[in-house]
Protein backbone atom coordinates (compact mmCIF):
# COMPACT_ATOMS: atom_id res chain seq x y z
CA UNK A 1 0.00 0.00 0.00
CA UNK A 2 2.97 2.36 -0.59
CA UNK A 3 1.06 4.76 -2.91
CA UNK A 4 -1.74 5.14 -0.36
CA UNK A 5 0.72 5.82 2.48
CA UNK A 6 2.49 8.41 0.29
CA UNK A 7 -0.79 10.19 -0.40
CA UNK A 8 -1.65 10.26 3.30
CA UNK A 9 1.76 11.70 4.12
CA UNK A 10 1.24 14.46 1.53
CA UNK A 11 -2.13 15.33 3.07
CA UNK A 12 -0.58 15.52 6.55
CA UNK A 13 2.34 17.64 5.25
CA UNK A 14 -0.06 20.08 3.57
CA UNK A 15 -2.18 20.31 6.74
CA UNK A 16 0.88 20.94 8.94
CA UNK A 17 2.08 23.68 6.61
CA UNK A 18 -1.30 25.33 6.89
CA UNK A 19 -1.80 24.93 3.17
CA UNK A 20 -5.11 24.01 1.62
CA UNK A 21 -5.21 20.27 0.88
CA UNK A 22 -5.75 19.14 -2.67
CA UNK A 23 -9.46 18.15 -2.80
CA UNK A 24 -8.90 15.52 -5.48
CA UNK A 25 -6.06 13.98 -3.48
CA UNK A 26 -8.15 13.98 -0.31
CA UNK A 27 -11.10 12.37 -2.14
CA UNK A 28 -8.79 9.68 -3.51
CA UNK A 29 -7.38 8.91 -0.04
CA UNK A 30 -10.87 8.67 1.48
CA UNK A 31 -12.05 6.42 -1.32
CA UNK A 32 -9.11 4.04 -0.85
CA UNK A 33 -9.48 3.99 2.96
CA UNK A 34 -13.16 3.12 2.64
CA UNK A 35 -12.30 0.42 0.13
CA UNK A 36 -9.76 -1.07 2.54
CA UNK A 37 -12.26 -0.94 5.41
CA UNK A 38 -14.85 -2.74 3.29
CA UNK A 39 -12.29 -5.41 2.34
CA UNK A 40 -11.25 -5.94 5.96
CA UNK A 41 -14.90 -6.09 7.02
CA UNK A 42 -15.65 -8.79 4.45
CA UNK A 43 -12.64 -10.77 5.64
CA UNK A 44 -13.92 -10.57 9.23
CA UNK A 45 -17.33 -11.90 8.21
CA UNK A 46 -15.65 -14.79 6.44
CA UNK A 47 -13.57 -15.61 9.51
CA UNK A 48 -16.45 -15.31 11.96
CA UNK A 49 -19.15 -17.77 10.95
CA UNK A 50 -21.60 -16.84 13.70
CA UNK A 51 -21.00 -19.77 16.03
CA UNK A 52 -20.60 -22.58 13.47
CA UNK A 53 -17.30 -24.48 13.75
CA UNK A 54 -15.53 -27.32 11.97
CA UNK A 55 -14.56 -29.16 15.15
CA UNK A 56 -15.81 -29.71 18.69
CA UNK A 57 -12.54 -28.34 20.09
CA UNK A 58 -12.89 -25.11 18.14
CA UNK A 59 -16.50 -24.64 19.23
CA UNK A 60 -15.78 -25.27 22.91
CA UNK A 61 -12.61 -23.15 22.99
CA UNK A 62 -14.47 -20.23 21.42
CA UNK A 63 -17.34 -20.76 23.83
CA UNK A 64 -14.97 -20.67 26.81
CA UNK A 65 -13.53 -17.32 25.67
CA UNK A 66 -17.05 -15.96 25.20
CA UNK A 67 -18.12 -17.15 28.64
CA UNK A 68 -15.24 -15.32 30.34
CA UNK A 69 -16.34 -12.14 28.58
CA UNK A 70 -20.00 -12.73 29.43
CA UNK A 71 -19.10 -13.27 33.09
CA UNK A 72 -17.90 -9.66 33.22
CA UNK A 73 -21.33 -8.43 32.09
CA UNK A 74 -24.02 -7.52 34.60
CA UNK A 75 -27.18 -9.59 34.85
CA UNK A 76 -29.06 -6.60 33.42
CA UNK A 77 -26.77 -6.57 30.38
CA UNK A 78 -27.21 -10.32 29.88
CA UNK A 79 -30.95 -9.76 30.02
CA UNK A 80 -30.60 -7.22 27.21
CA UNK A 81 -28.77 -9.82 25.17
CA UNK A 82 -31.47 -12.48 25.57
CA UNK A 83 -34.13 -9.89 24.79
CA UNK A 84 -32.35 -9.44 21.45
CA UNK A 85 -32.85 -13.19 20.88
CA UNK A 86 -36.53 -12.87 21.71
CA UNK A 87 -37.00 -9.98 19.30
CA UNK A 88 -35.29 -11.67 16.34
CA UNK A 89 -37.23 -14.91 16.87
CA UNK A 90 -40.57 -13.12 17.11
CA UNK A 91 -40.22 -11.45 13.73
CA UNK A 92 -42.92 -12.99 11.56
CA UNK A 93 -40.59 -13.99 8.73
CA UNK A 94 -38.17 -15.69 11.11
CA UNK A 95 -40.90 -17.58 12.97
CA UNK A 96 -42.28 -18.87 9.70
CA UNK A 97 -38.83 -19.73 8.31
CA UNK A 98 -37.60 -21.77 11.28
CA UNK A 99 -40.93 -23.54 11.70
CA UNK A 100 -41.06 -24.50 8.04
CA UNK A 101 -37.39 -25.53 8.08
CA UNK A 102 -37.93 -27.82 11.06
CA UNK A 103 -40.90 -29.63 9.52
CA UNK A 104 -39.33 -29.95 6.07
CA UNK A 105 -35.91 -31.14 7.26
CA UNK A 106 -37.03 -33.55 9.99
CA UNK A 107 -40.36 -34.62 8.51
CA UNK A 108 -41.84 -34.25 12.00
CA UNK A 109 -44.72 -32.16 13.32
CA UNK A 110 -47.11 -29.52 12.04
CA UNK A 111 -45.96 -26.16 10.68
CA UNK A 112 -48.71 -24.15 12.41
CA UNK A 113 -47.97 -25.71 15.79
CA UNK A 114 -44.22 -25.18 15.38
CA UNK A 115 -44.90 -21.45 14.97
CA UNK A 116 -46.86 -21.44 18.22
CA UNK A 117 -44.15 -23.38 20.07
CA UNK A 118 -41.31 -21.16 18.81
CA UNK A 119 -43.30 -18.06 19.75
CA UNK A 120 -43.96 -19.57 23.16
CA UNK A 121 -40.26 -20.27 23.72
CA UNK A 122 -39.32 -16.70 22.85
CA UNK A 123 -42.04 -15.04 24.90
CA UNK A 124 -42.41 -17.18 28.01
CA UNK A 125 -38.91 -18.47 28.79
CA UNK A 126 -37.93 -16.54 31.96
CA UNK A 127 -35.15 -13.97 32.07
CA UNK A 128 -33.28 -12.27 34.91
CA UNK A 129 -36.41 -12.24 37.10
CA UNK A 130 -35.78 -15.92 37.76
CA UNK A 131 -32.38 -15.25 39.37
CA UNK A 132 -33.54 -14.04 42.78
CA UNK A 133 -30.88 -13.18 45.36
CA UNK A 134 -31.48 -14.55 48.85
CA UNK A 135 -30.31 -12.42 51.78
CA UNK A 136 -30.18 -13.40 55.45
CA UNK A 137 -29.27 -10.81 58.08
CA UNK A 138 -29.01 -10.92 61.86
CA UNK A 139 -26.73 -10.28 64.79
CA UNK A 140 -23.92 -12.18 63.07
CA UNK A 141 -23.97 -10.00 59.96
CA UNK A 142 -25.19 -10.54 56.40
CA UNK A 143 -25.15 -13.52 54.03
CA UNK A 144 -26.03 -13.37 50.34
CA UNK A 145 -26.80 -16.35 48.13
CA UNK A 146 -26.84 -15.76 44.39
CA UNK A 147 -27.25 -17.75 41.21
CA UNK A 148 -23.96 -17.82 39.30
CA UNK A 149 -22.94 -19.49 36.02
CA UNK A 150 -21.48 -22.96 35.63
CA UNK A 151 -19.47 -21.94 32.55
CA UNK A 152 -19.68 -23.67 29.18
CA UNK A 153 -22.76 -25.91 28.91
CA UNK A 154 -23.14 -28.76 26.43
CA UNK A 155 -26.77 -29.10 25.33
CA UNK A 156 -28.02 -32.15 23.42
CA UNK A 157 -31.29 -31.47 21.61
CA UNK A 158 -33.91 -33.72 19.96
CA UNK A 159 -35.24 -33.92 16.43
CA UNK A 160 -38.81 -33.49 17.75
CA UNK A 161 -38.31 -29.95 19.10
CA UNK A 162 -35.15 -28.76 17.33
CA UNK A 163 -35.77 -25.00 17.29
CA UNK A 164 -37.88 -24.60 20.43
CA UNK A 165 -35.24 -26.25 22.62
CA UNK A 166 -32.48 -24.09 21.10
CA UNK A 167 -34.41 -20.89 21.79
CA UNK A 168 -35.51 -21.71 25.32
CA UNK A 169 -32.16 -23.11 26.45
CA UNK A 170 -30.18 -20.26 24.89
CA UNK A 171 -32.23 -17.66 26.75
CA UNK A 172 -32.07 -19.49 30.08
CA UNK A 173 -28.37 -20.34 29.88
CA UNK A 174 -27.10 -16.96 28.67
CA UNK A 175 -29.05 -14.88 31.17
CA UNK A 176 -27.50 -17.08 33.85
CA UNK A 177 -24.02 -16.14 32.58
CA UNK A 178 -23.26 -19.36 30.69
CA UNK A 179 -22.43 -20.02 27.07
CA UNK A 180 -23.81 -23.06 25.26
CA UNK A 181 -22.45 -25.53 22.73
CA UNK A 182 -25.36 -27.34 21.11
CA UNK A 183 -25.28 -30.87 19.82
CA UNK A 184 -28.44 -31.17 17.70
CA UNK A 185 -29.85 -34.28 16.11
CA UNK A 186 -28.20 -34.77 12.67
CA UNK A 187 -31.63 -34.79 11.02
CA UNK A 188 -32.06 -31.18 12.18
CA UNK A 189 -28.58 -30.01 11.11
CA UNK A 190 -29.45 -27.30 8.59
CA UNK A 191 -32.31 -25.93 10.66
CA UNK A 192 -30.01 -25.72 13.67
CA UNK A 193 -27.21 -23.99 11.77
CA UNK A 194 -29.56 -21.31 10.44
CA UNK A 195 -31.00 -20.71 13.89
CA UNK A 196 -27.60 -20.46 15.61
CA UNK A 197 -26.45 -17.91 13.02
CA UNK A 198 -29.68 -15.94 13.36
CA UNK A 199 -29.40 -15.71 17.15
CA UNK A 200 -25.69 -14.88 17.09
CA UNK A 201 -26.24 -12.07 14.61
CA UNK A 202 -28.89 -10.60 16.90
CA UNK A 203 -26.55 -10.95 19.88
CA UNK A 204 -23.70 -9.25 18.02
CA UNK A 205 -25.94 -6.32 17.10
CA UNK A 206 -26.87 -6.03 20.78
CA UNK A 207 -23.17 -5.74 21.68
CA UNK A 208 -22.79 -9.23 23.15
CA UNK A 209 -19.55 -11.23 23.01
CA UNK A 210 -19.24 -13.49 19.99
CA UNK A 211 -19.95 -17.24 20.14
CA UNK A 212 -22.33 -17.22 23.11
CA UNK A 213 -24.11 -19.95 21.13
CA UNK A 214 -22.18 -22.46 19.03
CA UNK A 215 -22.26 -25.88 17.38
CA UNK A 216 -20.27 -27.97 14.92
CA UNK A 217 -21.36 -27.86 11.30
CA UNK A 218 -21.59 -31.68 11.11
CA UNK A 219 -23.48 -33.03 14.15
CA UNK A 220 -22.91 -36.71 14.86
CA UNK A 221 -22.79 -39.26 17.66
CA UNK A 222 -19.00 -39.05 17.60
CA UNK A 223 -19.04 -35.27 18.01
CA UNK A 224 -21.60 -35.53 20.79
CA UNK A 225 -19.34 -37.94 22.65
CA UNK A 226 -16.37 -35.61 22.18
CA UNK A 227 -18.40 -32.75 23.59
CA UNK A 228 -19.62 -34.73 26.59
CA UNK A 229 -16.09 -35.76 27.51
CA UNK A 230 -14.43 -32.40 26.90
CA UNK A 231 -12.82 -31.00 30.09
CA UNK A 232 -14.04 -27.46 29.39
CA UNK A 233 -17.70 -28.51 29.42
CA UNK A 234 -18.91 -27.87 32.96
CA UNK A 235 -22.51 -29.03 32.63
CA UNK A 236 -24.45 -31.33 30.31
CA UNK A 237 -28.12 -30.92 29.45
CA UNK A 238 -29.84 -33.69 27.51
CA UNK A 239 -33.34 -33.35 26.09
CA UNK A 240 -34.33 -36.65 24.53
CA UNK A 241 -34.88 -40.35 25.09
CA UNK A 242 -33.80 -42.60 27.97
CA UNK A 243 -30.53 -43.66 26.32
CA UNK A 244 -29.04 -40.17 25.98
CA UNK A 245 -30.24 -39.19 29.46
CA UNK A 246 -28.55 -42.27 30.93
CA UNK A 247 -25.35 -41.40 29.07
CA UNK A 248 -25.11 -37.83 30.40
CA UNK A 249 -25.96 -38.96 33.92
CA UNK A 250 -22.99 -41.35 33.82
CA UNK A 251 -20.61 -38.70 32.44
CA UNK A 252 -19.23 -37.63 35.79
CA UNK A 253 -20.28 -34.03 35.12
CA UNK A 254 -23.16 -32.02 36.52
CA UNK A 255 -26.05 -33.15 34.31
CA UNK A 256 -29.69 -32.32 33.72
CA UNK A 257 -31.75 -35.00 32.02
CA UNK A 258 -35.10 -34.38 30.34
CA UNK A 259 -36.32 -37.87 29.59
CA UNK A 260 -39.27 -39.69 28.15
CA UNK A 261 -42.83 -39.71 29.37
CA UNK A 262 -46.02 -41.56 28.48
CA UNK A 263 -48.67 -39.13 29.74
CA UNK A 264 -51.97 -40.77 30.64
CA UNK A 265 -55.38 -39.09 30.74
CA UNK A 266 -58.13 -40.03 33.18
CA UNK A 267 -61.74 -38.97 32.55
CA UNK A 268 -64.39 -39.70 35.16
CA UNK A 269 -68.16 -39.36 35.23
CA UNK A 270 -68.08 -35.91 36.89
CA UNK A 271 -66.14 -34.26 34.06
CA UNK A 272 -67.52 -31.87 31.47
CA UNK A 273 -67.37 -34.59 28.81
CA UNK A 274 -67.78 -32.36 25.76
CA UNK A 275 -64.97 -30.04 26.92
CA UNK A 276 -62.79 -32.97 27.95
CA UNK A 277 -63.15 -34.51 24.47
CA UNK A 278 -62.23 -31.25 22.75
CA UNK A 279 -59.24 -30.68 25.09
CA UNK A 280 -57.90 -34.21 24.68
CA UNK A 281 -58.00 -34.04 20.88
CA UNK A 282 -56.35 -30.62 20.91
CA UNK A 283 -53.56 -31.71 23.26
CA UNK A 284 -52.91 -35.13 21.77
CA UNK A 285 -52.83 -33.89 18.17
CA UNK A 286 -50.71 -30.81 18.95
CA UNK A 287 -47.63 -30.90 16.71
CA UNK A 288 -48.67 -34.44 15.75
CA UNK A 289 -48.14 -35.68 19.33
CA UNK A 290 -44.36 -35.20 19.48
CA UNK A 291 -44.31 -33.05 22.65
CA UNK A 292 -43.33 -35.22 25.59
CA UNK A 293 -46.22 -33.72 27.57
CA UNK A 294 -48.91 -34.67 25.03
CA UNK A 295 -51.72 -37.10 25.90
CA UNK A 296 -50.63 -40.62 24.95
CA UNK A 297 -53.45 -42.86 26.27
CA UNK A 298 -56.90 -42.38 27.87
CA UNK A 299 -58.57 -44.24 30.73
CA UNK A 300 -62.27 -43.35 30.77
CA UNK A 301 -64.97 -44.49 33.16
CA UNK A 302 -67.28 -46.87 31.30
CA UNK A 303 -70.46 -44.89 31.90
CA UNK A 304 -69.15 -41.89 29.91
CA UNK A 305 -66.74 -43.58 27.47
CA UNK A 306 -69.14 -43.71 24.51
CA UNK A 307 -70.09 -40.08 25.04
CA UNK A 308 -66.42 -39.07 25.22
CA UNK A 309 -65.60 -40.84 21.95
CA UNK A 310 -68.66 -39.28 20.27
CA UNK A 311 -67.47 -35.78 21.09
CA UNK A 312 -63.87 -36.56 20.20
CA UNK A 313 -65.02 -37.58 16.72
CA UNK A 314 -66.87 -34.28 16.44
CA UNK A 315 -63.60 -32.45 17.15
CA UNK A 316 -61.23 -34.02 14.64
CA UNK A 317 -60.70 -37.62 15.77
CA UNK A 318 -61.09 -40.66 13.51
CA UNK A 319 -62.04 -43.90 15.25
CA UNK A 320 -60.74 -47.28 14.09
CA UNK A 321 -63.17 -49.90 15.37
CA UNK A 322 -61.99 -53.11 13.71
CA UNK A 323 -59.65 -55.24 15.85
CA UNK A 324 -57.82 -56.38 12.72
CA UNK A 325 -57.28 -52.78 11.59
CA UNK A 326 -56.02 -51.75 15.04
CA UNK A 327 -53.44 -54.53 14.90
CA UNK A 328 -52.51 -53.55 11.36
CA UNK A 329 -52.03 -49.97 12.55
CA UNK A 330 -49.85 -51.10 15.45
CA UNK A 331 -47.69 -53.23 13.17
CA UNK A 332 -47.36 -50.39 10.65
CA UNK A 333 -46.07 -47.82 13.12
CA UNK A 334 -43.90 -50.09 15.28
CA UNK A 335 -40.50 -51.68 14.86
CA UNK A 336 -39.98 -55.38 15.60
CA UNK A 337 -38.59 -54.48 19.05
CA UNK A 338 -41.77 -52.56 19.84
CA UNK A 339 -40.21 -49.11 19.58
CA UNK A 340 -41.84 -46.50 17.32
CA UNK A 341 -41.08 -46.69 13.62
CA UNK A 342 -39.26 -43.40 13.05
CA UNK A 343 -40.83 -43.12 9.59
CA UNK A 344 -44.12 -42.34 11.35
CA UNK A 345 -42.98 -40.31 14.36
CA UNK A 346 -44.59 -36.87 14.13
CA UNK A 347 -46.48 -37.66 10.95
CA UNK A 348 -50.08 -36.49 10.56
CA UNK A 349 -53.11 -38.66 11.24
CA UNK A 350 -54.11 -38.24 7.60
CA UNK A 351 -50.72 -39.56 6.43
CA UNK A 352 -50.85 -42.60 8.72
CA UNK A 353 -54.43 -43.43 7.73
CA UNK A 354 -53.52 -43.22 4.04
CA UNK A 355 -50.89 -45.92 4.62
CA UNK A 356 -53.72 -48.09 5.95
CA UNK A 357 -55.80 -47.42 2.83
CA UNK A 358 -58.12 -44.98 4.62
CA UNK A 359 -58.60 -41.56 3.04
CA UNK A 360 -59.71 -38.63 5.18
CA UNK A 361 -59.61 -34.84 4.83
CA UNK A 362 -57.41 -32.38 6.70
CA UNK A 363 -59.96 -31.92 9.48
CA UNK A 364 -58.87 -35.29 10.92
CA UNK A 365 -56.00 -34.67 13.35
CA UNK A 366 -56.09 -37.72 15.62
CA UNK A 367 -56.61 -41.48 15.33
CA UNK A 368 -58.45 -43.11 18.24
CA UNK A 369 -59.23 -46.73 19.03
CA UNK A 370 -60.51 -48.81 21.94
CA UNK A 371 -57.99 -51.21 23.44
CA UNK A 372 -57.22 -52.97 26.71
CA UNK A 373 -54.78 -51.57 29.28
CA UNK A 374 -51.96 -53.95 28.27
CA UNK A 375 -52.04 -53.13 24.58
CA UNK A 376 -48.73 -52.09 23.04
CA UNK A 377 -50.13 -48.72 21.93
CA UNK A 378 -51.04 -47.99 25.56
CA UNK A 379 -47.78 -49.02 27.15
CA UNK A 380 -45.31 -47.62 24.58
CA UNK A 381 -44.83 -43.89 23.99
CA UNK A 382 -45.28 -43.62 20.21
CA UNK A 383 -44.98 -39.85 19.51
CA UNK A 384 -47.69 -40.03 16.86
CA UNK A 385 -51.30 -38.77 16.72
CA UNK A 386 -52.62 -42.19 17.76
CA UNK A 387 -54.59 -42.31 21.02
CA UNK A 388 -55.77 -45.61 22.51
CA UNK A 389 -58.78 -45.43 24.84
CA UNK A 390 -59.36 -47.92 27.66
CA UNK A 391 -62.79 -48.22 29.25
CA UNK A 392 -62.73 -48.93 33.02
CA UNK A 393 -65.30 -49.62 35.71
CA UNK A 394 -64.56 -46.63 37.94
CA UNK A 395 -62.16 -43.74 38.50
CA UNK A 396 -60.03 -45.57 41.06
CA UNK A 397 -59.25 -48.29 38.51
CA UNK A 398 -58.53 -45.59 35.92
CA UNK A 399 -55.99 -43.94 38.23
CA UNK A 400 -54.31 -47.28 38.92
CA UNK A 401 -54.06 -48.09 35.21
CA UNK A 402 -52.73 -44.59 34.50
CA UNK A 403 -50.04 -45.13 37.13
CA UNK A 404 -48.98 -48.38 35.44
CA UNK A 405 -48.95 -46.92 31.91
CA UNK A 406 -46.88 -43.89 32.97
CA UNK A 407 -44.08 -46.31 34.01
CA UNK A 408 -42.90 -44.14 36.91
CA UNK A 409 -41.45 -41.56 34.53
CA UNK A 410 -43.13 -38.92 36.71
CA UNK A 411 -43.33 -36.67 33.68
CA UNK A 412 -46.87 -35.51 32.86
CA UNK A 413 -50.42 -36.62 33.64
CA UNK A 414 -53.82 -35.18 32.80
CA UNK A 415 -57.21 -35.60 34.47
CA UNK A 416 -60.70 -34.38 33.62
CA UNK A 417 -62.92 -34.38 36.70
CA UNK A 418 -64.82 -32.15 39.11
CA UNK A 419 -64.08 -34.47 42.03
CA UNK A 420 -61.35 -32.73 44.04
CA UNK A 421 -60.70 -35.82 46.12
CA UNK A 422 -59.96 -37.95 43.05
CA UNK A 423 -57.92 -35.18 41.42
CA UNK A 424 -55.78 -35.07 44.56
CA UNK A 425 -55.49 -38.85 44.62
CA UNK A 426 -54.16 -39.00 41.07
CA UNK A 427 -51.77 -36.10 41.63
CA UNK A 428 -50.27 -37.85 44.67
CA UNK A 429 -50.22 -41.28 43.09
CA UNK A 430 -48.39 -40.36 39.88
CA UNK A 431 -46.08 -37.65 41.31
CA UNK A 432 -45.88 -36.13 37.83
CA UNK A 433 -43.69 -33.11 37.17
CA UNK A 434 -46.68 -31.60 35.34
CA UNK A 435 -50.25 -32.43 36.37
CA UNK A 436 -52.93 -30.77 34.22
CA UNK A 437 -56.54 -30.62 35.37
CA UNK A 438 -59.45 -30.03 32.98
CA UNK A 439 -57.35 -28.61 30.13
CA UNK A 440 -55.22 -29.75 27.19
CA UNK A 441 -51.78 -31.02 28.18
CA UNK A 442 -50.03 -27.97 26.71
CA UNK A 443 -51.61 -25.77 29.40
CA UNK A 444 -48.88 -27.22 31.61
CA UNK A 445 -46.18 -25.35 29.64
CA UNK A 446 -48.00 -22.03 29.49
CA UNK A 447 -50.32 -22.35 26.47
CA UNK A 448 -53.66 -21.36 27.95
CA UNK A 449 -52.26 -21.98 31.41
CA UNK A 450 -50.36 -19.77 33.83
CA UNK A 451 -46.63 -20.02 34.31
CA UNK A 452 -43.44 -19.93 32.27
CA UNK A 453 -42.41 -22.33 29.55
CA UNK A 454 -39.50 -24.61 28.77
CA UNK A 455 -38.77 -27.44 26.35
CA UNK A 456 -36.35 -29.15 28.72
CA UNK A 457 -38.51 -30.80 31.37
CA UNK A 458 -36.14 -32.57 33.73
CA UNK A 459 -38.02 -35.34 35.48
CA UNK A 460 -35.16 -37.84 35.92
CA UNK A 461 -32.85 -35.33 37.61
CA UNK A 462 -35.58 -33.46 39.49
CA UNK A 463 -35.27 -29.89 38.19
CA UNK A 464 -38.74 -30.10 36.65
CA UNK A 465 -39.50 -27.27 34.26
CA UNK A 466 -36.03 -25.82 33.78
CA UNK A 467 -35.40 -22.06 33.90
CA UNK A 468 -32.29 -19.84 34.18
CA UNK A 469 -31.64 -20.82 37.78
CA UNK A 470 -31.57 -24.50 36.76
CA UNK A 471 -28.35 -23.80 34.86
CA UNK A 472 -26.64 -21.91 37.68
CA UNK A 473 -24.62 -22.65 40.81
CA UNK A 474 -25.70 -21.17 44.13
CA UNK A 475 -22.80 -19.25 45.68
CA UNK A 476 -22.73 -17.74 49.16
CA UNK A 477 -21.04 -14.53 50.31
CA UNK A 478 -20.90 -13.76 54.05
CA UNK A 479 -19.82 -10.68 55.97
CA UNK A 480 -19.63 -11.10 59.74
CA UNK A 481 -20.88 -8.54 62.29
CA UNK A 482 -21.77 -5.97 59.65
CA UNK A 483 -24.60 -4.75 57.43
CA UNK A 484 -27.42 -5.88 59.70
CA UNK A 485 -29.21 -2.54 60.14
CA UNK A 486 -32.40 -3.57 61.94
Descriptive overview:
The protein has helices at 2-16, 23-47, 56-71, 75-90, 92-106, 111-124, 162-175, 189-205, 221-228, 242-249, 273-285, 302-314, 323-333, 349-355, 376-379, 395-406, 420-430; strands spanning 52-53, 134-138, 141-149, 152-156, 179-183, 213-216, 233-239, 254-258, 264-267, 297-301, 317-320, 366-370, 386-392, 412-416, 434-437, 457-458, 464-465, 472-480. It is an alpha/beta fold and 486 residues long. It has a seven-stranded parallel β-sheet with strand order 11-12-13-10-9-14-15, sandwiched between helices. The chain has a six-stranded parallel β-sheet with strand order 1-6-5-4-7-8, sandwiched between helices. Strand 14, helix 17 (420-430) and strand 15 (434-437) form a beta-alpha-beta unit. It starts with a helix and ends in a 6-residue tail after the last strand. The model is unreliable at 41-46 (pLDDT under 50). The chain contains 17 helices and 18 strands.
Amino acid sequence: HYPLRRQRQMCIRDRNKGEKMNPELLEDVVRQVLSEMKLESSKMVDIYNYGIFDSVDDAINASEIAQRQLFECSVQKRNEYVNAIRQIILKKDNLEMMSRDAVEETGIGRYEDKILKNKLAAEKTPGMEDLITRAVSGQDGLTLEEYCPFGVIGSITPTTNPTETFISNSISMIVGGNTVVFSPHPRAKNTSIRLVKLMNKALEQAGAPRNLISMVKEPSIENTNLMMNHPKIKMLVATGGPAIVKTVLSSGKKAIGAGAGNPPVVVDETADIEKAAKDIVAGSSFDNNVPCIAEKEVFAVESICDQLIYHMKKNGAYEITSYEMIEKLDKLVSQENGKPNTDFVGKSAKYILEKLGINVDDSIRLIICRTNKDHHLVQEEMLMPILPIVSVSDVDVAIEYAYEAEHRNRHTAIMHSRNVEKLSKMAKKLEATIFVKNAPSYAGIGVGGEGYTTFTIAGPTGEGLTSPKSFCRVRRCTISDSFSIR
